[in-house]
């Protein structure tokens, strides 16, 4: 369990989480703020699942900013293995050390083969990849460890994570078991491209992040794009709500809403019309098939729906 006299500024309550996140422009609802608070208090990783673009990765960034800590990010992908995520030996530095020892020997220094081996395989010669970096960190404030898109990694790597997430320790054959100096706050994200194993889920608190309501998205947009005009923000959020009810391969998330709002401000637009929407589809959709499917829609009818919602 966590220490009650921790030196770093912990979140004192659920409301404290929400307020700290709002201060760095991340708007969390009560359920999310509660789950984050419990992840801190219980010292358990937090697994976030949901569609791409709903704010899973942004939450980890916001938590690091709110806590004044480092964000250590491990981006998962197919074929990722332990050496790429955990550590590797600094072979070049080890080789240099060996050559310097050979020079000492040539200059008459006594041999010290056993000592040399111990030096070569000490933690000093380890290159810390994200997981070991988070475990061995001795920062004033424990870092936030983001294991992003864990569903893209292989099941073997998922199994490897179990020791890390259970005991926050790792075994290096040459050194033995390295324990965490302090526990990081761990956030795992998944877009559900495959189902994660129950053993991993049991080690985590779980939260599904869904698309926000109109009111929540409007508040997010006005916060993240302060230059956007009120009526245009209403139209943009209404437009996105309508699109998410349609059959697209990749429905636009909050990230696309923010991108589109920033683009419209950059173009000095203050109202949505046919030409504005047609010119900025690249901010909304990321797949050609979705663009074609949208162009087959009656854009005037969609804009009329947006106007009706805004009334």
Could you provide a short overview of the structure?
The protein is 49% helix and 13% strand.
Reading side by side through the largest sheet, how are the strands ordered? 2-5-8-1-9
Helix content: 40-55%
CATH T-level topology of the largest domain: Rossmann fold
What is the second-level CATH architecture of the largest domain? 3-Layer(aba) Sandwich
Report the CATH C-level class of the largest domain. Answer: Alpha Beta
Q: Radius of gyration, rounded?
A: 25 Å
Low-confidence stretches are 1-7
- Major β-sheet profile: 5 strands, parallel
Q: What oligomeric state do the depicted chains represent?
A: single chain
Order of helices and strands: HHEHEHEHHEHEHEEEHEHHHHHH
Instruction: Assign the CATH superfamily of the largest domain.
Output: P-loop containing nucleotide triphosphate hydrolases
Number of domains: 3
Integer average pLDDT: 87
Q: Give the amount of beta strand, in percent.
A: 5-15%
Q: What structural class results from the helix and strand content?
A: alpha/beta
Number of strands: 9
């Amino acid at each position: 369990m966590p220490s009650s006299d921790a030196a770093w500024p912990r979140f004192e309550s659920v409301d404290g989480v929400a307020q700290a996140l709002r201060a760095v422009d991340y708007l969390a609802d009560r359920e999310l703020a509660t789950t984050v608070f419990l992840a801190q208090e219980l010292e358990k990783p937090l697994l976030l699942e949901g569609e791409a673009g709903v704010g899973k990765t942004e939450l980890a960034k916001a938590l690091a900013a709110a806590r004044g800590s480092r964000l250590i990010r491990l981006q998962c992908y197919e074929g990722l293995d332990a050496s790429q995520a955990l550590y590797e030996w600094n072979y070049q530095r080890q080789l240099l050390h060996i050559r310097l020892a050979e020079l000492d020997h040539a200059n008459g220094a006594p041999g010290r083969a056993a000592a040399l081996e111990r030096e070569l395989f000490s933690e000093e010669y380890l290159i810390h990849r994200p997981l070991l970096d988070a475990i061995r960190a001795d920062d004033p404030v424990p870092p936030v460890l983001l294991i992003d898109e864990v569903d893209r990694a292989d099941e073997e790597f998922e199994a490897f994570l179990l020791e890390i997430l259970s005991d926050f320790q790792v075994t290096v054959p040459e050194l033995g078991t390295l324990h965490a100096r302090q526990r990081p706050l761990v956030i795992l994200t998944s877009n559900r491209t495959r189902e994660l194993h129950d053993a991993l889920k049991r080690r985590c608190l779980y939260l599904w992040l869904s698309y926000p309501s109109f009111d929540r998205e409007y508040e997010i947009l006005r916060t993240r794009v302060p230059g956007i005009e009120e009526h245009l923000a209403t139209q943009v959020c209404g437009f996105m709500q309508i699109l998410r009810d349609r059959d697209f391969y990749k429905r636009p998330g909050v990230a696309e809403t923010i991108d589109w709002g920033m683009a419209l401000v950059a173009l000095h637009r203050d109202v949505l019309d046919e030409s504005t929407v047609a010119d900025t589809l690249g901010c909304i959709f990321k797949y050609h098939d979705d663009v074609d499917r949208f162009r087959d829609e009656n854009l005037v009818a969609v804009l009329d729906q947006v106007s009706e919602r805004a009334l």
